[in-house]
Amino acid sequence: MGVFPAKAGEEADTITEHAHRFRRRLGRADLRAVPEARRELRELLRHWGKPGRSEIAELLTSELVTNALLHTDDEAVLTAVVEPGGLRVEVRDFMARRPELRAPDAQDDTHGRGLVLVQSLADAWGVRPHGVGKSVWFELGAEAA
User: Fold this and answer.
1) Spatial distance between the Cα atoms of 61 and 118, rounded to a whole number of angstroms
2) What is the tens place of the pLDDT at every residue in 50-72?
3) Residue 44: which of 75, 84, 71 has the closest Cα?
């Protein structure tokens, strides 16, 4: 797997000989960033993991990006680090309010399922506070659970 060239709004570099990452700034309330982030992650994961793992990563990434863009009043930063054995995706925003894991409302088809999906499909996930804001992250192993 090679290092992918950086595009506007992202940095791509090699962390170690076998680890790669990209970082992308997500503009305030710019929902066009969701499919763009999925495409970038798909490219990064092109030769990674068992079948189905990269699709799960794309889904969970789009959930975290969407949450950051819909529920904060500032930009966010998406970082993905991939190694042969695992992937870590982190979305940092600049609001202190922690996300709430809540049961989806049966009457609402489009909201309330993001973190439930993350909890259900990720190998690990969590929220890490920062001096200003927080990061919501998940990890997936390359092999199916």
Assistant:
1) 9
2) 889 999 999 999 999 999 998 88
3) 84
